[in-house]
Design brief:
The complex is a heterodimer of chains A (162) and B (388). With 162 residues, chain A is mainly alpha-helical. Chain B is mainly beta. The radius of gyration of chain B is 21 Å and the shape is globular. Classes of the chains: A mainly alpha (162), B mainly beta (388). At the A-B interface, helix 1, helix 2, helix 6, strand 1 and helix 8 of A face helix 1, helix 2, helix 3, strand 1 and strand 2 of B. Strand 1 of chain A pairs antiparallel with strand 2 of chain B.
Chain lengths: 162, 388
Amino acid sequence: MFRNLFRDLFSAPEKLKMRSNVEERRFSAASSPIHDPGFSPRDHICCSGIFLVLLVLTAASPFSAQAQQPSRASVTADLPAGPMQAKATTACLECHEARIILQQRLSKAAWTKEVDKMTKWGAVVDPTDRDALIEYLSTNFSPDKPAYAPPRTSGGKTGSGR
Amino acid sequence: MNSRRSFLKQISGAAFAAAAAPSILAWALPQGQSVEFPGEDGMILRSFRFVDLESPVEYFNTWLTPVPHFFVRNHMHEPSELDAHDWRLSLGGEVDKPLTLSLADLSKIETHSVVNTLECAGNGRSLHRHQVPGIQWGKGAVGTARFSGPRLGDVLQRAGVKPTGKHVMFRGLDEVPGKVPPFIRSIPIEKALDADTLIATHMNGFPLTKHHGFPARALVPGWIGAASCKWLTEIKVLEAEFVGNFMSPAYRLPNQPVQPGDAVKPEDTHPVTALNVKSVIAGPADGSSLSAGKVSVHGAAWAGEADIARVEISTDAGATWNPAKLRQEQAHYAWRLWTYDWKPGKSGDYTILSRATDSQGRTQPSAPVWNPSGYLYNAVDQVKIHVS
């Protein structure tokens, strides 16, 4: 998990040798007619270790001077509780974050195809866990569940220096 | 190359839209959770890893989309290290003289600019009934920018394409997790040699940002976003279409209409290439309550390689239609902004529809055309509002 977190953080724009790109962001955002569309990130710090690491690394970034308002939601989401939560986390979230799963609303047949495709693509799923994993996903993310409500990004100010 | 001044001039139309709907902007965005994301402003976070960001439709009020408001679609991890000095682009395959180009080499080739509406093939996927797997985009995996860089055809000409060269393959520097097939696709040589197909290094007059493919990406105008490979590192001229997951089974449409939920055999499909005709209502926002008075219905319409001929608006759920006014800014592959000034006759609930028709005579269908991957959703757009 931490390896991935580090990879994400280091793949953030500030890692790049792209000073002119930072300038573009600043300019483009400042040119926007609705650059602050009603967002009010709240001072609400999640006390997870992940977030602390994020804060430390953010503080070390060139944007630290502007990074004053921590986000309310964690950067990545978790899978729902259940008997297969831990194994699904290991199998799926090694390569991508939970929101890619949380937003799906699929039948059991469709989840079966997804699990088998992902296993072929490298997801580590013990054959004895396959059916339980499919059951977990198709129970939690079936077509009758309400639509997933994604968060918004709040980073225009930090990233653009406005 | 654009100056900042010209860029500002190009997006000045934004002032019109912001002024037209001041009451909308104040409440358009739900007060949900937010996630810190440097440089990306108020975007809908579909996924943090891989990065997939959607523009809220209320952002579609400028002809050119500011980069922090431009949707981001990644299939893989973004490259962890990108160094403009060390970056090289190789060009090989069915050519007389393979090339390796640096960013400095590219900058010495004549630059061409194309204002292009870039749309993810899966934009609108979540709106299909009988939902299908994939990023559940709403309406905002689309944006318009001025892309600049050498023509791909000029670079291919330097290498000398052999008569056997029929397709041009792009490979990016995406970091592939596990055993996932690499994101490699190809386009036909005719499209590759089109004067508007670019190796883009700039977006809206400034170097590409990392999320948009720094230091260079393909720009295949009028086609689905997947054709415009980011973080370009290899171009290869092939004798035939590239064989790989992202050419087949991915990014293909059924040859014949199918019912929602139907399975389709690979041999009964064809590649998704150019975008179709589509319009989106940017305001008023769906579910909003407005006070009586003049309402500016506004949005954007685009048609891939075709031009928008007209946009029609219905404020009575499709019983009657009236023409919207197309704004002046236009370019071959770019969307047209449109407006329709409307004064509701009385208070109540209204369903507002928008319907675009293009220069090829294509009109948005009233109902979605379903396909197993949820590509190219383009049904007539609608918002429901209340006027008090």
